[in-house]
């Protein structure tokens, strides 16, 4: 079993890219999903996906599990990064904490 602490440099680079690729997929998919399911629900699912995948990364016992966790966390984070500006723009100024 390959341990995370013994990853080769190329493997570490690949695993680092998994999160970025996941963010691309999450950002592209979140617009269509939020149109269908709503921004709040999509944002909540993205948050849960990111949180659970981060926990998987923290407890991963292999490079494969860690890489999968990074990819799924990237999907959740990509969804959040594209939804939050739209949700902020939709919030009436009277309900915002600053207003």
General description of the model:
The chain has a domain at 28-87. 79% of the residues lie in helices and 0% in strands. It has helices spanning 9-37, 39-59, 63-90. The chain starts with 8 loop residues before the first helix and ends in a 9-residue tail after the last helix.
Task: Return the structural class.
Answer: mainly alpha
Q: Which oligomerization state do the chains in this entry correspond to?
A: single chain
Q: Unreliable runs, pLDDT <50, ≥5 residues?
A: none
Number of helices in the DSSP assignment: 3
Shape, principal axes of CA atoms: elongated
- Fraction in beta strands: under 5%
Helix-strand pattern? HHH
The description of the largest β-sheet is: none
User: Helical content, roughly?
Assistant: over 70%
What's the total count of β strands? 0
Tell me the span between the first and last alpha carbons.
Answer: 54 Å
Mean pLDDT: 84
Radius of gyration: 16 Å
Could you give the topology of this structure?
Layout (H helix, E strand, L loop, with lengths): L8 H29 L1 H21 L3 H28 L9
Helix pairs in contact: 1-2, 1-3, 2-3
Output the keywords.
99 residues, mainly alpha, 79% helix
